User: Fold this.
Amino acid sequence: MKQLIEFENGEVKDAKLTSMRVRDIFDDCLFKEEELEEGNPTKEFNVVEGVMIQAVFNTERLNQHKLEIDEMIDEIANIDKGPHFLNMCTRKDGSLWTGEHFVVDQLMVLGLATEKLKVPLDIPKKEWGDFFPYGMPFVIKDQQKTSVPVIGENPKNYKTVMKLIK
Assistant:
């Protein structure tokens, strides 16, 4: 029997996973102007690369939002089985939480940064096109990292980390 889905203000009622909430958390986890010196973070940071996005997050705020990020990821359909990136826009109840894959990518990088999500097979991004359909990965929930705080990089290492990523 299909579950009746209730809507409120254009969103699924009682859903934690909404396009607006993902955007708000993503924006809040980015560094603010006052936390940068000459474009470099002054606090612990995490650099994560998704399909279209590379983001440098404030580790402290990732930890503040970690539980909510985990709850949103848990609403993704088939997340335990490892859905393809293009299918991550569907909730377990069958409803779409966004029609924009850019926002799916924002949630994916938040999940990778908090280690709630991982790309199986540990394939470098530059090789995704050889292994994954449409050059976009499958992602899977990592149950082991849920209660572990996010560990960031020392801001003194920012330039070194960024060189390694390029």
